[in-house]
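Example 9 (inverse folding). The structure is encoded as follows.
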């Protein structure tokens, strides 16, 4: 669920933003029906799909129509933040935990891009031709690998790693929210891995990054 928006949704949204957004509502409907009608063991999957649909819808909206305005990225991704915070104490807590952890990972990524001076290249990449975008992505990755920038992303990675450990510790304590903490830990850990993979692809094979 963390990987799909990066490597599957991004190219889909570029070519067909409307259908990508509609698919978000398909995911939401599937999640609601699963949570209401499926056997008890599958109700948690329904809640997860609901949370995933929120991330998918936000991504479709931003990457489909607003991608050249990076300052709007986090606000758009956070459109369901009030609902997610409210839902943490309801039957939808797993989906809310997924959405909130994804949003937190997005926030760390955007901040790291801003502090490493990569953000100015963002509008250029999404509006460039494929050949130009590849070169720009490589330039962005090169900027990130500079010593001062590498220290920033290393610090961000360590903070995320500490958060993952804290979430995992909470998930081991018997409580109604233990599964939610486990989901949050998994999402944050996967986000860290995906960011590292995206950086590698941008540097070596930008055409595989999902943005071109």
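The amino acid assigned to each position is listed next.
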């Amino acid at each position: 669920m963390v990987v799909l928006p990066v490597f599957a949704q991004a190219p889909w949204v570029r070519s067909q933003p409307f259908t990508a957004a509609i698919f978000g509502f398909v995911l939401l409907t599937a999640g609601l029906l699963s949570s209401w009608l499926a056997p008890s063991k599958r109700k948690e999957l329904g809640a997860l799909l609901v949370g995933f649909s929120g991330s998918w819808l936000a991504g479709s909206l931003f990457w489909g129509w607003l991608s050249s305005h990076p300052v709007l990225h986090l606000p758009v991704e956070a459109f369901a933040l009030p609902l997610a915070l409210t839902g943490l104490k309801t039957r939808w807590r797993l989906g809310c935990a997924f959405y909130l952890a994804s949003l937190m990972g997005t926030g760390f990524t955007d901040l790291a891009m801003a502090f490493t001076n990569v953000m100015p290249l963002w509008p250029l990449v999404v509006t460039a031709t494929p050949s130009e975008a590849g070169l720009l992505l490589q330039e962005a990755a090169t900027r990130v690998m500079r010593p001062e920038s590498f220290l920033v992303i290393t610090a961000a990675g360590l903070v995320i790693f500490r958060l993952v450990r804290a979430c995992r510790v909470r998930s081991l304590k018997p409580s109604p929210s233990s599964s939610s903490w486990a989901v949050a830990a998994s999402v944050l850990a996967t986000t860290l891995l995906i960011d590292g993979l995206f950086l590698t692809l941008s540097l070596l094979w930008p055409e595989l990054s999902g943005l071109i």
